[in-house]
Hints:
The protein is α+β, with helices and mostly antiparallel strands. The chain has one domain (2-128). The chain has helices at residues 45-55, 74-80, 114-127, and strands at 2-10, 13-22, 27-31, 38-41, 59-61, 70-71, 84-87, 99-101. Strand 2 (13-22) and strand 3 (27-31) form a beta hairpin. The longest helix is centred in the last third of the chain and has 14 residues, at 114-127. It is globular. The N and C termini lie far apart (56 Å).
Amino acid sequence: MxxxxxxxxxxxxxxxxxxQYDSSRTKLKFSEADNFEKTYTADDxxxxxxxxxxxxxxxxxxxxxxxxxxxxxxxxSQMSGGMVAYELTLGKRxxxxxxxxxxxHEEYNLTNDPREQQKFxxxxxxxxxxxxxxxxxxxxxxx
Length: 143
């Protein structure tokens, strides 16, 4: 497994936390201290990181994977195991220049709630005109 140290803020103190990962097997271990007791698995590393952020809400992870507007595309997830993602901008389609590594340092617009990232992604989809409206008659309303 590879090791990556990431800056985080714990109890208002900036310090490094450690991740051990195997992106080919989508396994991510996290340690606040020196012992790695819990292993996270998911479809990709971005989703593993999301699980860790949910489990440790008192830790502010200073990395791109915790930024509200960062999300991997399906292809980026498959090709990199979720280690790279796109930094999305409302109204702008992504390019290669928007690719970021999820453990890359970041200090702004961070969240520990993956639902906030999903909400931003949905807003971004609408902002670039790529949303698919529900077909007529697909509503659950049966008057």
